[in-house]
Structure formats: structure tokens, C-alpha cells
Amino acid sequence: MEIEVLEKKDHALLSRIEVSFKVKHPNESTPKRNEVRAGLAERMDVKNGCIVIDNMKAVFGRSETIGLAKIYKSDENAKAIEHKHILMRNNLISAEREKSKPKKGIK
């Protein structure tokens, strides 16, 4: 798996850097988010917990995946700014069990 950074944008107000990337994975399946986060953390020299992958899309007919990641200054900034479902998707927080609410029905 080879990760290529296509574009970097610095957002000082949100304390993050947005990175467009391309992952080349010949003779392999589409990489998992955790694998890509680890590769980006190594390439960008940051902690794995500070990276949030926003989206990834495999290119049809090619062994490439294109995506967008956000690299925060700290994991606390990521947890304060990102939506809960995005944090759960990136394994930065654990899924909380929601109590089932009684359904309102016709009596």
C-alpha cells in the first residue's frame, strides 16, 4: 500500500490540516480506514488519534482509493469538532448503547 498526498490545506481556525490523498494498493483489497490512518500518521509524522478520515472511495477498475482526511493538532480538538458518527467510524470513540425508546402507537 502506497499513500500519496495530493493536496494539503491549513485551517488555523479549526486547528487542523485537510489532506486529499490517493492510496495505491495493487494486488490487494481496498484498505481499511485504520490501515490508511496508520499510513497517514507515519507519512505526516503525527499521532494516529489525531487523524479523522472523512471519506474514501475506491476508483472503479483500478487499484486506487481516493479520500479526504483531517489532521487535528490534538485528539481533544478532533472530538470537540467532529460529528459523533464520524468519530465512531474512525474508532476514536466507542459506540454507546442507546436505550430503546417505547414506540408511540395507536391505543
Structure notes:
- This protein has 107 residues and is an alpha+beta fold.
- It has a single domain (2-89), classed as Alpha-Beta Plaits.
- It has three helices and four strands.
- A four-stranded antiparallel beta sheet has the order 1-2-4-3.
- The radius of gyration is 17 Å and the shape is globular.
- The N and C termini lie far apart (58 Å).
- The model is unreliable at 97-101 (pLDDT under 50).
Quick rundown:
With 107 residues, the chain is of the alpha+beta class. It has helices spanning 33-44, 75-81, 84-89, and strands at 2-11, 16-24, 51-58, 64-72.
List keywords for this structure.
107 residues; alpha+beta; Alpha-Beta Plaits; four-stranded antiparallel sheet; 3 helices; 4 strands; globular
Strand content: 25-35%
Report strand order across the widest sheet: 1-2-4-3
Shape field: globular
CATH-level-4 superfamily name: RRM (RNA recognition motif) domain
The portion of residues assigned to helices is 10-25%
CATH class descriptor: Alpha Beta
The main pleated sheet reads as: 4 strands, antiparallel
End-to-end Cα distance, whole Å, is 58 Å
| Helix-and-strand structural type | alpha+beta
Using DSSP, what is the number of strands?
Answer: 4
For this structure, the CATH topology is: Alpha-Beta Plaits
Number of domains as seen in the coordinates: 1
Q: Strand-and-helix sequence, N→C? A: EEHEEHH
